[in-house]
Amino acid sequence: MQSEILKPVVVLVAWSLVMWAWMVAVRIPALKKAGIDLGKIRGSRPGQLDGVVPDKAQWPAHNYMHLMEQPTIFYAIAIVIALSGTGNGVNAWIAWGYVAIRIAHSVLQSTINKINIRFLLFLLSTLCLIALTLHAAMAVFA
Predict the structure, then answer these.
(1) What 8-state DSSP symbol labels residue 3?
(2) Which residues form the signal peptide (predicted)?
């Protein structure tokens, strides 16, 4: 039987790829408009283009980086839950909640970028992650 928790994992990976495409679609034109020749620049660090290109062109890139951070913990704990045989029912619903909140966070950050709302969404997603971690611990240490 397939573990239902794997479905939100796949959706979050797919969403991360959507955000990658959004980032490229917004950032490349902004770089060109700023006169930055991608063929001539070498290496960079996160945030190096802040203040060089418009903030709205940076927001999808910032969010894409965020999707490479905390969600990696989600992926790991979801796999533990799936392998422990507890990936259906409440754990699947919590995982869907995590994914829905992260998608809402992405859309918010990449459009209006209101920090107070972003923080609330981040807090809610973290609470989902804490619940999944506790459930995983109960499954593997029981």
Answers:
(1) -
(2) none
Mark 46-65 as b/e (b = at least 16 C-beta within 10 Å).
Answer: eeebeeebeeebbbbbbbbe
The pair of three-digit structure tokens given for residue 124, joined into one six-digit string: 């809610």
Task: Tell me the C-alpha distance between 80 and 90, whole Å.
Answer: 15
pTM for the full model?
0.94
Contact between 19 and 104 (Cβ < 8 Å): no
Name the token pair of 89. 């029912």
The answer on pLDDT for 44 being more than 80 is no
pLDDT digits (tens, 9 = 90+) for 62-76: 999 999 999 999 999
What proportion of the chain, given as a percentage, has pLDDT over 90? 85
The CATH architecture to which 6-35+54-141 belongs is Up-down Bundle (1.20)
CA separation for the pair 67, 34 (Å, rounded)? 26
- Show the 3-state SS of 78-111: HHHHHHCCCCCCHHHHHHHHHHHHHHHHHHHHHH
Average pLDDT of the chain?
95
